[in-house]
């Protein structure tokens, strides 16, 4: 069991997450997280190829330009935006045949 102070703090934070202000701020973070993911997966920015701040900074600027060019190209060519991925469990549930709630028993 959690101590009372921890429980109250957790309850306060969960209540805060239901406010529109929190959702607006988190939406901004979600956009940044998507950009960071795109930089690491498409441009290989997980680790710097260069030593030194000047070269690393230049690499980051060029990566940002490349991401922007890819997004402009996708917008102009009419490529559909990637949707939210569906997890494995959700896919299995969606593909499962609807049952009446009765257990499947061998005859």
Automatic annotation (TrEMBL):
<dbReference type="InterPro" id="IPR025668">
    <property type="entry name" value="Tnp_DDE_dom"/>
</dbReference>
<feature type="domain" description="Transposase DDE">
    <location>
        <begin position="4"/>
        <end position="72"/>
    </location>
</feature>
<protein>
    <recommendedName>
        <fullName>Transposase DDE domain-containing protein</fullName>
    </recommendedName>
</protein>
<dbReference type="Pfam" id="PF13751">
    <property type="entry name" value="DDE_Tnp_1_6"/>
</dbReference>
